[in-house]
Amino acid sequence: MDSDAPQFRIAAARRILANSGCESAVAGHVSARASANSFWASPFEDFDETKPERIIKVGLDLTLLQGDWEASPAIQFHASIYEQQPSVGAIVHTHSTYISALTTKHEIVRAYNIAAAPFIGRQALYLEDGLQPPVEGKAVATALADADTLLISNHGVIITASTLEEATARAVLIE
Hints:
The protein has 175 residues and is an alpha+beta fold. It has helices spanning 6-19, 76-84, 97-103, 137-144, 164-174, and strands at residues 29-35, 38-41, 56-59, 64-66, 90-94, 123-126, 149-152, 156-161.
C-alpha cells in the first residue's frame, strides 16, 4: 500500500501515538476526511496493532462505504465535527494518561510551560455529567465551536486539525 494512502497514514498515526505515550488501548480513534460527506476511521483495537487494511471509510451517517467492519457508534462525534466544520481534515481522540488526569480538574490546559503555547486560546472544555451518552456527536461539535482542542472532563481529548500529521503531533504534544 502506498504510504500516502489515508489508511496507511491513519495506521501510522496510531502507532506514533502509542509509541509517544498516547496509547488508549482499544478506545480512542483517529480519522481523516475523505470527502465532504465521508471520512476514514480507525477500529477498536490497540493503537500499536492497527494495520491499514483495518481502516474503514464511512459516510457522515456512519454508513460503511469501504472496508469490512461496521463503524462503531462511538465515532459519531467525528461525523458531527466534519459536518459542522468543513476546514477540519483530521481528528485524534485519545484517553492518554496525563491529559485524562488533567481533565478531572475541569480546566483547560494552562501555560505551564512552552509546550502549552499551541493550545492557548484554541481549546474548549466539555463537561460530561455521566447522565447522557458520553461524547454525544452534536453536543461535542457544538462545544468545540471555534477551538481545535476539546478537553472532555474525566475522559480525554479531541484534537482537530487540517491535516492528520498536525492532529497527531498536537495530540502527542498535549500529552
